[in-house]
Amino acid sequence: MINNLQSTTTLNNGVKMPWFGIGVFKVEEGPELVDAVKFAIKHGYRSIDTAAIYENEESVGQAILAGMKETGVSRQDLFITSKVWNADLGYESTIAAYETSLKKLGLDYLDLYLIHWPVEGKYKEAWRALETLYKEGKVKAIGVSNFQIHHLEQLMKEAEIKPMVNQVEYHPRLTQKKLQSFCQKQGIQLEAWSPLMQGQLLDNPELLKIANKYNKSIAQIILRWDLQNGVVTIPKSTKEHRIVENSDVFDFELSKEVMEQIDRLNQDHRVGPDPDNFDF
């Protein structure tokens, strides 16, 4: 039952991952980011998602340590994710990148480590490195990001360990139903980045009607739609009131008709790069 910020989904290796978290994409190092992550922890968030390419792991780490100290939340209660960037894909380089991220974050381990993009000819070696890190107990779960069905199929042909998570662009304009169905069948948890389409959906007339009907914001409607679709979601915000508002999605449920109405907004439209046509 997804009924609060600490509600979790169980990954295919038995690790529990919060359904809801905060993302920090494009938030620069510094006090604003530190405060945002501390606000999130204070208000009940337990999942924090960053990446090497965001160049903000040090501030995220500072915020995690400060947040734990101020709230009494233990490290075991938090779920911290980072990602290996394209330039570091390769066996040794991925392991080195993991250690660098860990050092910047000031942590002893990560809960989830992802391959950020499926760079052809490189992601299989990187996956082998993630398997090593996982077997050595240096990370609790491993997964991928931006992988399409054919990438997953190619990876799983040779992988010893199946990915536990696939983090992809996912919002009402890009519902990725086939990918979601494939991941469900394979026991791979789908996770949404850019769930609010980088703010582009926040003035959508159809979503506004739904929001008014439920007395919620458009953002809350979309995030609730994510959860009811069984998709982990990590909206980004640096403002305390927005961090609180985003997470206020556990006291209502969208009807089947409304869920289908939102699904129909799909246009297969991306705000981020296409994983199959991305100049790496």
From TrEMBL:
Site (Lowers pKa of active site Tyr): K83
Transmembrane segments annotated in the record for this chain: none
Keywords: Oxidoreductase
Ranges where the NADP-dependent oxidoreductase domain occurs: 31-266
Pfam family, one: Aldo_ket_red
Claim: Cell inner membrane is one of the keywords in the record: no
InterPro entries for the chain: AKR, AKR5G, Aldo/ket_reductase_CS, NAD(P)_OxRdtase_dom_sf, NADP_OxRdtase_dom
PANTHER family: 2,5-DIKETO-D-GLUCONIC ACID REDUCTASE
Protein name: Aldo/keto reductase
Family as reported in the entry's similarity comment: Belongs to the aldo/keto reductase family.
Annotated PROSITE patterns: ALDOKETO_REDUCTASE_1, ALDOKETO_REDUCTASE_2, ALDOKETO_REDUCTASE_3
GO molecular function: oxidoreductase activity
UniProt source species: Fontibacillus panacisegetis
Active site: Y54 (proton donor)
Binding annotation for substrate: H116
Lineage: Bacteria, Bacillati, Bacillota, Bacilli, Bacillales
